[in-house]
From TrEMBL:
<protein>
    <recommendedName>
        <fullName>Sugar-binding domain-containing protein</fullName>
    </recommendedName>
</protein>
<dbReference type="GO" id="GO:0003677">
    <property type="term" value="F:DNA binding"/>
</dbReference>
<keyword id="KW-0238">DNA-binding</keyword>
<feature type="domain" description="Sugar-binding">
    <location>
        <begin position="73"/>
        <end position="321"/>
    </location>
</feature>
<dbReference type="InterPro" id="IPR051054">
    <property type="entry name" value="SorC_transcr_regulators"/>
</dbReference>
<keyword id="KW-0804">Transcription</keyword>
<keyword id="KW-0805">Transcription regulation</keyword>
<dbReference type="Pfam" id="PF04198">
    <property type="entry name" value="Sugar-bind"/>
</dbReference>
<dbReference type="InterPro" id="IPR007324">
    <property type="entry name" value="Sugar-bd_dom_put"/>
</dbReference>
<comment type="similarity">
    <text>Belongs to the SorC transcriptional regulatory family.</text>
</comment>
<dbReference type="GO" id="GO:0030246">
    <property type="term" value="F:carbohydrate binding"/>
</dbReference>
<dbReference type="InterPro" id="IPR037171">
    <property type="entry name" value="NagB/RpiA_transferase-like"/>
</dbReference>
<dbReference type="InterPro" id="IPR036388">
    <property type="entry name" value="WH-like_DNA-bd_sf"/>
</dbReference>
Length: 322
């Protein structure tokens, strides 16, 4: 085996030239990483890293000329199968390596959808969570809206992903009015819950729950542990729910694998939009994707609460073939 030089003859070159060279060798000339490594007098691992970096820096871009039609077709098939008004599918041409990156991608297409479909004067409720935080961070403009908080707050939810922060950020973008609700997501005592429910500030926000044009919510998946609501629910509440096959949450509505709505202490002790108010909302948009969210998405679709689903291509394929 020939002895490898300590320093490659390419080591002093502008890295842009090296990126262009390796992607041409790999994708056009179909050379192996080992062959590229030998030519550049570097290790195979270094060659692989250069190819990855070149892709990340967009020295090569993948085009799928027929993909848009497939994206539209599968979105149409999801609507047909689950009686949705609309489905938006993140194209297979998009790539990600973690749930966080997928949330960023889903947040981007959700932001575009909202920019295109929300109109001035609408009353819009927003839940909480990572994908919604990503959505709001990628919104640059909106018409003037009333932005409504859909639940109380809980210290277990990171502030930047919580309901109060999200409604204020949205209202700042739209130059509309925020309707916050500065109460806990739930309390431990029914008499206290009743007292807080009669507070004028709470009533002022909750009056909008029966008037909403749009609700934007993530989808929690309980069986895979991919639910911020599951993470903060008291253990004493969780056990009976798992015995009832709890699979998903949509805002504070809990759903089993058949799409049936489950009762929970939240109905007596909590503060948030009710299942009936969700059903009466003109358009409920659910945003979720990825393997961990799949069962929760299926359960949510079976519940009939969603009008619009925004998800990724891989999940869409599974949904159509379920």
């Amino acid at each position: 085996m020939p002895k490898r030089r300590t320093n490659s003859r390419w080591s002093g070159y502008d890295p842009r030239y090296i990126y262009s060279l390796v992607v041409r060798r790999y994708f056009v000339e179909m050379k192996t990483k080992t062959e590229i490594a030998e030519e550049l007098e570097i290790s195979r691992f270094k060659a692989a890293r250069l190819i990855d970096e070149a892709i990340e820096q967009e020295y090569v871009k993948f085009l799928f000329p027929k993909q848009q039609l497939l994206d539209e077709e599968i979105a149409h098939n999801i609507c047909e199968k689950y009686a949705l008004e609309k489905a938006v599918v993140l194209s297979v041409s998009e790539s990600w390596s973690s749930q966080q990156q997928l949330n960023e991608k889903l947040g981007g297409i959700t932001a575009s959808y909202l920019s295109d479909n929300l109109t001035e004067g609408m009353k819009v409720g927003i839940a909480w969570g990572r994908v919604l935080s990503s959505t709001v961070s990628q919104l640059s403009s909106l018409p003037q809206l009333d932005i409504v908080q859909l639940s109380g707050v809980h210290p277990g939810i990171e502030f930047s992903q919580g309901p109060i922060d999200l409604i204020h950020r949205l209202s700042a973008i739209s130059q509309g009015k925020a309707h916050p609700m500065y109460v806990p997501m739930w309390v431990d005592d029914e008499s206290l819950a009743e007292k807080l429910a009669s507070d004028p500030a709470v009533l002022d926000t909750q009056q909008y729950y029966s008037q909403l044009d749009v609700v934007i919510t993530g989808i929690g998946a309980w069986k895979t542990g991919s639910s911020s609501l599951c993470d903060i629910f008291p253990q004493a509440w969780q056990q009976p729910l798992f015995q009832q096959d709890i699979t998903a949450d949509i805002c504070v509505t809990l759903v089993n694998s058949k799409g049936e709505i489950l009762d929970s202490p939240m109905n007596r002790l909590g503060f948030g939009i009710s299942t009936e108010q969700l059903r009466n909302t003109k358009t409920v948009i659910g945003v979720a994707g990825g393997e961990q969210k799949y069962e929760g998405i299926v359960a949510s679709l079976k519940s009939g609460l969603l009008d619009v689903l925004i998800t990724d291509f891989d999940t869409a394929v599974k949904l159509v073939n379920a």
